[in-house]
Amino acid sequence: MSDDDEQTAKMRKILEANKDKDFVKRVIDWDDGVEQPSIDLGKGMRGTHMMATAEADGVHYAYATIQRDSEGELQRLDPREAFQIAMAQGEVIGFDTAEEADEFARNYKKVWEPEE
């Protein structure tokens, strides 16, 4: 198994373990070909997640800075505000190290890449 295949398998495992979270459902559904709501990021780009990381009480978290508002519409938030809301709503994935959280936040989209 190549390094890319191993990383993709690792991302899938983390996503599967957290499939109850709204932002993870959007990742999984996208991978299954279900069109997801998105927001305009400008310059012809659209966004559904925009992942970030933060630390609290010794735990390192990955979370989405694009979140649903009270009416269910996606909105892009400042990372600090997004983290506070994500923590309050349980919309975070915890990791032991900053490196693990960063790896997930940078590479979760690998599950969308076609398998060779």
Features:
116 residues; two-stranded antiparallel ribbon; globular
Structure report:
With 116 residues, the chain is α+β, with helices and mostly antiparallel strands. The chain has one domain (3-112). It contains four helices and seven strands; from the N terminus they run ααββββββαβα. The chain has helices at 3-17, 22-31, 79-89, 98-107; strands spanning 39-42, 45-47, 51-56, 59-64, 66-68, 74-76, 92-95. The strands form three sheets. The chain has a three-stranded antiparallel beta sheet, sandwiched between helices. Strand 3 (51-56) and strand 4 form a beta hairpin. 26% of the residues are buried.
**Estimated helix fraction:** 25-40%
What is the first-to-last residue Cα distance? Answer: 12 Å
Strand tally: 7
What is the residue-averaged pLDDT? Answer: 87
Strand content: 25-35%
Structural class: alpha+beta
Count up the domains.
1
Strand order across the biggest sheet?
A: 3-4-7
For the sheet with most strands, the description reads: 3 strands, antiparallel
Low-confidence residue ranges? none
Short structural summary:
This protein is of the alpha+beta class. It has helices at 3-17, 22-31, 79-89, 98-107, and strands at residues 39-42, 45-47, 51-56, 59-64, 66-68, 74-76, 92-95.
